[in-house]
Amino acid sequence: MAVRDGMAAVLAVAALLGSTTTTGQDKSQGAFDVATAWEKMRAEANLERVYSGYELLSEMGYALDSIDVEACRKRGGDLSKAVRTAPVSIAIRHAAVLCAEAMGDADAAAAEAELLDQVSREALAQADEGKSAKPIRVLAFQDAYTLVHRLGMQTAYQYYRDERPARHFPFVVAAWDPEDEVERHMAFDVVDSAYAMSRDDTHSGFPYQRDVLADAFLKGQLESDQVLAIDVQAIRDAGFQPSAEGKVAKLRPAAEAGGILSARAWLVACESSPFEKCGDGLVDALLPQAEKRDALPMALLAYAYAQGIGIDRNQTAADALLVAANRIWPREGATSEYVSLWLAGHEEPPSPGINALVERAMVAGNVNIRSEVLRNRIQRTEKPVLSGEEIAHLSRQDQNGLGAGYALLAAYFSKSGDDARARDSLQRAAQAGDPGAQADYGFMLAEGDGIAKDTAAAAETLSLAAHGGEERAMRYMAYLSEQAAKWRDAVFWLLPAVDRGKIQALLDVAGVMEYGRSGIQDEQKTALRVYTSLAEDDDVAEARRRLAGMAIEGRAMEKAPERAKAWLLHDAEQGDHESETMLGLHYLSGDFGKDGEAEGMRWIRKAMDARHVEAYAGYASWLTYSKKTPEARKHAIELLTQAMDLDAEVVANNLAWALCTSPQDDVRDAARGLEVTTKMGDLEAMGAPELDTVAACHAATGDFARAGELQARALEQVRKFQANLPAAPEGGDPVAIDEGYAARLALYRSQKAYIETDR
């Protein structure tokens, strides 16, 4: 798909920025406390130095229950340094215990073992098989495997929970407990810790750094043919396939290799978008793991039998497999996965059979099943009803390690019309770390929607949401960066969404690059590639409009007005009002020839007949600044006044400016203009152009003190913005957008209003 091609273009250019790291310094340590050590590492440790300790383990022959004795003699000092560098590492501390034992130093071994126990206990205190729980934080994958080994268990299989990182990138170790003969599913995360220790890289501080780190881990795992990485790569590749056939083709090899996510996605694809022979090979892919008594593959196989995917329906076989899997997976873990699959693939209410499975799992104490059922009910029911006990369940601590339970309650209370409880639940969910809740609550703070407006808290909350993978929040943080002319920052905020193939984020990034703002190599050519790919392969009208703009102005290509006209006509002829407006305005402006006014008016009228507010605003601007006659200016005011009823925020700035600064006495109406400025939004959140307008209206009404105050704020914003603009091209004149703002400020300080004589 073109989305992927455009995404690759942006990411490839961004990668050219490179990455740098600096080496941290050792800090003296006091009495050992695991929680304090973790915080100290996150605040001060250097990722490269920390990971060198794990490389040392490999060099010393560390293998869970053994280590090379001679290496302990020769490299003991290096190992001690590695422990000091990464005091919360389970694997490195375990290696220190093994070395002390191998060297016959019983006292040292006992002391190291006690410290290792402390670190292990802290990790286990986080362990929870609930999907709403935080994953166990570790520094490296080796720590997870060592912890499982120290618990007397063996790693049976592994899988990532998701295809891409959000704040975390949990990987699950399905560990076989030989004593109890059960499977324990333990979720771990290395990405958040690595992110905290990557303070000096190019992408540090941005969500994209988490993607970079996760991809680095995956690359290493792919190079050693680890199934969990092959699995994730297949899911990513399948996500860019437009058809079910294409998706299954990407998923099949990974599922046959033992990939859990791929097998599950294969089931979902064949149930939701079946095609002939869709499920062929699926049962054969799952059988080897089922025969080894791996519980999750057994649950997936049971579902295939029950739904007849890749095999004839056989409910008896499905039930037998599910019973066998639940013997291995405590608290009906297999049933929970089975029901989750059913809910994902069916819009209708759960069948009696599914309800019976749910009841059985709930009786067994499964913490995931009830939440899954409640989520399904809340999301798919217009007016859901929850009992007091169900509300209490979603409020439990084990449902809110990351705020998922509170987020569901926020949605429930919102649908129930209980706004107060909805806000309270949303705030709790945001504080606990639910990214969607953080985005929703952040926008409420930004807009003062039902709560006190707090732009600083909004930015902080939306930053957290962006790090949690929320595209809306990424775009808002990019917007804030653009307002400060921090163009490269804007790109970095958006890159995770671009990496996930989000078209609007891709357009946002290309919009920065199109004007050569970010300083990224070949950015204008990259923008051209992105727009072309989206226009030709994904039929994105906005991409064609931007290509038209580049062709008319000659950005990254020779001026080509005929090509621009063709791009705009493609969508205008299909009734796209933005394209109609843009086409009409370019005709009126003479970009398609000298005698284009009649044709321009034809297209503008089409858009205005559809009450497209931008057509009114654009046509009014043309009348004011191109036609320039007294009659044209009056007509512009009439159009803007009409458009106020369509979308006041879009046109209020233009109307107020015209009323307060028009050179025509019979058009200028300062009192009315000042009234219109009250429709422009929150004064404290306004950018320089809006402040410029409000200041002009205050000056027009004789309030020069207020005009000067607002104009000074506008000028300050403009100068900060201008300071971050790219350097002028060689031989070109530097941009000086502050001159008009400064001139108007001087007018107001001399007790004079501003009258617009020319633009």
Would you give an account of this structure?
The protein has 759 residues and is mainly alpha-helical. Helices cover 65% and strands 3% of the residues. It has 38 helices and 4 strands. The protein has a 4-stranded mixed sheet. The longest helix has 20 residues. InterPro entries: Sel1-like, Sel1_AlgK, TPR-like_helical_dom_sf. This is Sel1 repeat family protein. It comes from Luteimonas vadosa.
Mean pLDDT: 92
Q: Poorly predicted ranges (pLDDT <50, ≥5 residues)?
A: 18-30, 729-734
Rounded to the nearest angstrom, the distance between the terminal CA atoms is 44 Å
What would the principal axes of the Cα set say about the shape?
globular
Beta-strand percent range:
under 5%
Q: How many DSSP helices?
A: 38
In terms of structural class, how would the helical and strand content be classed? Answer: mainly alpha
What does the main sheet amount to?
4 strands, mixed
Q: Could you give the order of strands across the largest sheet?
A: 1-4-3-2
The tally of strands reads: 4
Helicity level: 55-70%
Report the radius of gyration as a whole number of Å.
Answer: 31 Å
